[in-house]
Amino acid sequence: MDQVSGNKITRALLYLSGVSVSFEGFRAINNLSLTIDHGEMRAIIGPNGAGKTTMMDIITGKTRPDEGDVLYNDGNVDLTQLDETSIANLGIGRKFQKPTVFEQHTVEDNLLLSLKADRGVWPNLFWRTTEAHRERIDEILEITKLTAHRSRMAGALSHGQKQWLEIGMLLGQDPKLLLVDEPVAGMTDAETAQTADLLRDIAKDHSVVVVEHDMDFVRALDVKVTVLHEGSVLAEGRLDQVTSDERVIEVYLGR
Amino acid sequence: MISRAIFENNVGGTIFLGILAILAVMVPVLHLAVPEDSFFHVSTSTVVVFGKYLSFALLALSLDLIWGYCGILSLGHGAFFALGGYAMGMYLKLQTSGGAPPDFMVFLNWKDLPWYWWGFDHLSFALLMVLFIPGILAFVFGYFAFRSRVTGVYLSIITQLLTYALWLSFFRNDMGFGGNNGLTDFSTIAGYSVQAPETRAALFSTTAIALMAGYLIAKAVVESKLGKVLVAIRDAESRTRFIGYRVEAYKTFVFTLAAMMAGVAGALYVPQVGIINPGEFHPANSIEMVIWVGAGGRGTLTGAALGAVLINYFKTIFTTGFLAPYWLFALGGIFILVTVFLPKGIVGTLASVDWRRWIPAKRAPADEAQLKPEPAE
Ligand SMILES: Nc1ncnc2c1ncn2[C@@H]1O[C@H](COP(=O)(O)OP(=O)(O)O)[C@@H](O)[C@H]1O
Ligand SMILES: [Mg+2]
């Protein structure tokens, strides 16, 4: 790609432009354009099937777009040319809609595996867990309220605890950009509020994109909102702004 | 550091290593130093047949490393065992012929050794090849298969095709590996007669020690952080990619390591049984190995070794009596019984039993009441 300094396409952390992808003729993402700035936290809402998860699949290299640009880090990196591993190592972390943790590993080992460190074969064969690593794991256990469960198999956790463990794994990875897909699904109101606090805290020194249905949760985040519908952006702005938008009301409530 | 990881909280592994250490010392003593008419004498056939079982145990252990810990169900693992066996067979064959082209080449009117036989008259070279030939094949095969993300049943099928292709190739006389008959009629190894009781005893002990070493290496690998990555790949491959691990590199690593261990097992097998032929590449052999591991306990290492010894022991009993024609039915029966009643295999089931319940409680009842319920495995 052309990298003439001062003549960049974008200065944003993440830049999607004209992105489309079809599954057997069905356009799941349709000419989508979206920009996330360095340090920004963004909420993405939209009805089921709007393409929110598919958008994350495209950013993280799971799905290749049919057309469009997906650029990272001031437009320096073309994400469409990279695989999941390379993208993860560029500092893009992801929490899945369906919580996915390593069920046959303890909570602690799940965090150990996620800790930011060399991902190569040899360094991991001869790996020594240092005091700093242990402290970081303890910290994350504390933040995610999983300290009492550290030695349990992750598969034995409740749904909500798995969600938190997955967020903890994101913390361990310490990525530049966190993509968080429906983090409060299946949580109680109290847990939802705690998760909002946690994400706001994380957003202090990370860029975060959160997909969520729960309006109370989105309100609690108090950030710019993008409404996705049929694979493209329907509206963008503050939550009260977009929720008073006629077209958004129509999409959400039906006519 | 490693020794602590191996012995602490690892009762099964400690027993396993202990038994092997005792066998490595006692079998030669009982074979060589105890008079033949004594009750305690270990006969030649017993030494040979148990040496063979131990080489199978090492083979099963290596298969468990990839299947049990990384979810790679190879149905062609026998290929690496056979290649290691052929590398050793080539050395033994050149000992018999004194470095000249061996008998079957003479029948083919070959005047000189083909280039790929060069160097095999040296034991050290042959031993390197025992590691490198299976290792390089596994590396190249794994590199392409894993990079293309071939997984599950498709991977099983192409591994089966790999061993099938080798099976067909090694039957051909013009391949220069003795065709249908394979390599046999060995005379000496490292200067000692392969038939001598001392040599047989030494080969047995070497196999037991190789199995111990194989176990220690495998254990160190699965206990390392890399081992945790392997299990992560087994259970959630895509998730492992999303936290930045290059899955194909890990798979290629463990697949290559396992192939090298299988090669060593094959190299120990050949001088003890006195022959290597294309039959060792037969796809059915590779499937049988999977049953050993499944029966003993996938993902336990010791279980794989135990499964290999037990099933082959039954096989020997079965196939030397009037029941011989029914062995495959028996094997199928074992497979079904284990799948239905012991899905975790023998060792896997033993390990999941809460033994503390059976041990008389030393602690006060008050302590007992405080015990939190253990999370399900
Ligand atoms: N791999 C796929 N193959 C076929 N259709 C898909 C695939 N992934 C997503 N879709 C379809 O694309 C649409 C958008 O899905 P998704 O991104 O999961 O929506 P959301 O996360 O907004 O609920 C849905 O209609 C879904 O069925
Ligand atoms: Mg979704």
Automatic annotation (TrEMBL), chain A:
InterPro entries: AAA+_ATPase, ABC_AA/LPS_Transport, ABC_transporter-like_ATP-bd, ABC_transptr_urea_ATP-bd_UrtD, BCA_ABC_TP_C, P-loop_NTPase. Residues 14-255 form the ABC transporter domain. It comes from the Bacteria. Keywords: ATP-binding, Nucleotide-binding, Transport. SUPFAM superfamilies: P-loop containing nucleoside triphosphate hydrolases. GO terms for molecular function: ATP binding; ATP hydrolysis activity. Pfam families: ABC_tran, BCA_ABC_TP_C. One of its GO terms (cellular component) is plasma membrane. PANTHER family: CONSERVED COMPONENT OF ABC TRANSPORTER FOR NATURAL AMINO ACIDS-RELATED (PTHR45772), HIGH-AFFINITY BRANCHED-CHAIN AMINO ACID TRANSPORT ATP-BINDING PROTEIN (PTHR45772:SF8). This is Urea ABC transporter, ATP-binding protein UrtD. The lineage of its organism: Bacteria, Pseudomonadati, Pseudomonadota, Alphaproteobacteria, Hyphomicrobiales.
UniProtKB/TrEMBL annotation, chain B:
It is a multi-pass membrane protein. The keyword Transmembrane helix applies. The chain crosses the membrane at residues 12-33, 39-59, 66-88, 123-146, 153-171, 201-218, 249-270, 290-314, 326-347. Keywords: Cell membrane, Membrane, Transmembrane, Transmembrane helix. The keyword Cytoplasm does not apply. It is found in: Cell membrane. It holds the Pfam family BPD_transp_2. CDD domains: TM_PBP1_LivM_like. This is Urea transport system permease protein. It comes from Filomicrobium insigne.
